[in-house]
Amino acid sequence: MEHLVEHMRVSFHSVHEPKCGICQKHCRSFESLREHLIGPLPKIECARIFSIRGCSLCLNVFDSSNALRIHRGQCQLSRAAPNLNISLSRLSLQSSSSDYDARMQGPRVVALACKMVGGGSDGSLDLCARVCLIGEDENIIFHAYVRPQIPVTNYRYETTGIRPEHLRDATPLKQVQRRIQDFLCNGEPIWKIRSRGGKARRLVGHGLDHDLECLGIEYPAFMMRDTANYPPLMKTSKLSNSLKYLTQAYLGYDIQTGIQDPYEDCVAAMRLYIRMRSQAHPRDYSSGSGEAQNRNNFPSWRQRELERMTPDQLLELSGSDYYCWCLDS
C-alpha cells in the first residue's frame, strides 16, 4: 500500500480521467486509453470485448452490439457543409454595425480559428490573413479577410487559398482586433473578467495562444479552452495532437484535405470541446478544478492512515492537475 499511496500522490488520478469501461483502468489521456484498447499492444481481454461492443471514436463500451450500432449514428459526425460556410461568410462580411451589436448578446461559448500567410524575407513569419468566429450552433458570428500590417511575401495559396486580391480591400488588423476583443469581453474590462458568473465569453480553438498572438489580442487563459493543450486530448508523450488528427480520431471525419477553411477548423474545435464537456463525470469541482489544493491531499503526516485506505477511497481523495471541461456544463 505504501507504493500505491506514493503513486496516487504524484499521478493526480481522479474521477475526471478517461477510464476503461471494461477493466476500469484510469488513463491520463484518451490516447493512453486508445492504446490500452486498440493499440499495438492492447490488454487482450479488453481489446476482445471492445472489438464487439466498443466505439472507436468516444472509446465507450456498450451493453450490446445493437446499442453500439444505435450510438454510432450519433457519435459519427459529418464534415461541415462548405456551401453553407460560403453563404454565411458573405452575410457576415456584409452585416451592418447594428447587426454586430445585436450579436453582443449572443452565445456564451465561441470558437476562433485563423489562417496565416507568410511575411518576412523568407515568408516564414505568420501573419493572420483570415479569421472566423462561430457559436455553439456552428453559425458564423464574424468572418473577415485581414490586411496584415507588414507586406506579405508568401500567400501559401496551396493551403490558405488566399490571393493578393483577397487582402487588397481586407479589414485592417487593428479593426479586427478591436471587434473580436470587444465581442469576447462582452462589455467587461479585461482585468475584471472572472471564470464564473461574468459576461465574458469562453473561447475555444486549437493553438489559441498562437492565433491570439498573431491577432495581437490578449485574453485570460482561464477563459480559453484549447484542444491543443487539453491533457485528455494530448499524446501520451504530453505533446499536442494536430486538429486534423483529433477530428478524424474523435469525430470521425477528415478536415484540412486541401485548401483549409477557418470555419471548418472552428467547427471541429467546437465539436471536440462539446464532446469533452459532455463527459459523464461527477460534477465535483474540487476534484476536477486542477487547483493547487488537490496536490495537498496526501500529506506525509497522514501516511499511516492513507495506507489503510482502499484504492477507491484514495481515488476519492485525489484530484486532477488540470481543469476538466465537464465543469463548464
TrEMBL record:
Subcellular location, record wording: Nucleus
PANTHER family associated with the record: RNA EXONUCLEASE 4, RNA EXONUCLEASE REXO1 / RECO3 FAMILY MEMBER-RELATED
GO process annotations (BP): rRNA processing
Protein family: Belongs to the REXO4 family.
Any GO CC annotation of this UniProt entry: nucleus
Predominant subcellular localization, coarse grouping: nucleus
Keywords, in A-Z order: Exonuclease, Hydrolase, Nuclease, Nucleus
Protein known as: RNA exonuclease 4
Molecular functions (GO terms): 3'-5' exonuclease activity; nucleic acid binding
Name of the encoding gene: LOC105058725
A Pfam family hit: RNase_T
Exonuclease domain span: 108-282
